[in-house]
Amino acid sequence: MMQKQWVLASRPSGAPQVDNFRLIQTQMPTFRPGTALVKTLYLGVAPVMLRYMRNETVFERPMELGDVMAGRGVAQVLQSDCPELPVGAIIQARLGWQEYALIDNNQYPKPFILPHTDLPVSHGISTLALSGFTALVGLREIGKLKSTDAILVSGAGGGVGSQVAMVAKALGAQRVVGIAGGQDKCRALLSKMAYDAAIDYKNDCLEARLDELFPSGIDVFFDNVGGPLLDLVLARLRRRARIVICGGISEYLLEDGDRYQYKNLQNLGRQDAKMEAFFVYDYEPHFSGYGEELAAWIRAGIITPIEHISEGIETLPQALVDLYVGANFGVRMVRVGDAS
Ligand SMILES: NC(=O)c1ccc[n+]([C@@H]2O[C@H](COP(=O)([O-])OP(=O)(O)OC[C@H]3O[C@@H](n4cnc5c(N)ncnc54)[C@H](OP(=O)(O)O)[C@@H]3O)[C@@H](O)[C@H]2O)c1
C-alpha cells in the first residue's frame, strides 16, 4: 500500500517556504520485529522546525535533502512488537511528516501513551504535550509563580502563549497581560485565552502600554520573542523579578552579527532579578505527571486548549510557513487521519 510523505527539497535561506518541501508517494513501511507500525492522526508544527531544516539542532538527527521532514505527532498503534506501545494505543511520538511510520521505544524523546481517552486526541499535540508542558514548566519551575505576581507574556497568541494565562490561573495567578500582533489576536487573548489585558505590539506604543498596565513593574515575564521587546521589559522589572526565556522567535531569522544588543541587562543586578532559559525535554521524567495535572484542569474547565487545525497532510508546509508570519491562533496542527 502507498502512503504520502513530505520530504525536504531545499534548505530555507530565511523563513521556511512551501517550496522547501516536496510531496511524494512511497510504499508504506513494512512491520519489523522490535518496532511498532503506527498511523498518523495529527502532526504539529513549531518554530523549532526551521532549525531542523537548517540542521541547526543538536538533539534531532541531522536532516539531509530528500529525508522525510522531522516532526512530532499523535498516532494510533496498528501493529506492535514493543510492550510499551500496545496495539490500539494512541501515542505521541516523533513520526515525521508521513501517513504511517515505523517507530520503536528507543527514540529520544521517548514516545508516550496518551491515557486521557475521554479528551480529544488533538490535545495530544497541544495542552497534553509539549506546548502545555512548556507553559507549565516555564511558569512553575522557572518562573516560581506566586499568586500576587504581575505577569506579562509575549507571543501570547501562539502555541505556547495561548496556554500560559490559563495555566497561570490554574496555578493561582490573579492577573496576566499578553502581547500579540494585531487587533484580532488581541481580542482573542481576552475572549478565548484568559488574558486580562492585551498589548498589540504592531499598533500600540509598547512603552506607554507597559507603563500603564504595570505601574509598579513586572514580576514574571514569560518571553517567547526576545529582542527589543525583552529589553523594554528589562527596564521595567520589579525587585526579585523572574524572566523566563522560553523562546526568541524575533531573532530566529537573523544572522549572528545582526542580533539585537541588549541595553538594560544591568537592571537584573539592580533589581536582584533572575533571567533563566530552559528546555522542556529536560523535564521528560515529569511529562506523565504534567499530563495528569493539565488533563484535570481541562476537565474542570480551567483550561481550554486553543487549537488551530487544518485538514489533510497536503497543508503541512503552509501551516509551518504561517508560524513565521504570526498567522496562527493557538497551537497549529494538521489532521492527517482518523483512528479506527
Ligand atoms: N523552551 C522550550 O523548551 C520551548 C518549547 C516549545 C517552544 N519554545 C519556543 O517558544 C516560542 C513560542 O513557540 P510556539 O510554539 O508558541 O510558537 P508559535 O505558535 O509560532 O507562536 C509564536 C508567536 O510569536 C509571534 N511572532 C512571530 N514572529 C514574531 C516577531 N518577529 N516578533 C514578535 N512576535 C512574533 C507570532 O504571533 P504574533 O501574531 O503575535 O506576532 C506567533 O504566533 C518559540 O520561540 C519556540 O521556539 C521553547
Account of the protein in words:
The protein is of the alpha/beta class. It folds into two domains: 2-126 and 306-335, Alpha-Beta Complex (Quinone Oxidoreductase, Chain A, domain 1); 130-280, Rossmann fold (3-Layer(aba) Sandwich). It is built from nine helices and 15 strands. Strands 3, 4, 5, 6, 7, 14 and 15 form a seven-stranded mixed β-sheet that branches. The protein is globular and about 65 Å long. The two termini are 17 Å apart. NADP nicotinamide-adenine-dinucleotide phosphate binds next to α2.
**Class based on secondary structure composition and strand pairing:** alpha/beta
Categorize the overall geometry: globular
Low-pLDDT runs: none
User: Into how many domains do the coordinates divide?
Assistant: 2
CATH class of the largest domain, named: Alpha Beta
Report the CATH topology name of the largest domain. Quinone Oxidoreductase, Chain A, domain 1
The bound ligands are: NADP nicotinamide-adenine-dinucleotide phosphate
Number of helices, where a helix is a run of at least 4 consecutive DSSP H or I residues: 9
- State the helicity in percent bands: 10-25%
Number of DSSP strands? 15
What would you say the CATH architecture of the largest domain is?
A: Alpha-Beta Complex
Strand content: 15-25%
Major sheet details:
7 strands, mixed
Condensed summary:
By secondary structure, the protein is of the alpha/beta class. The protein contains nine helices and 15 strands.
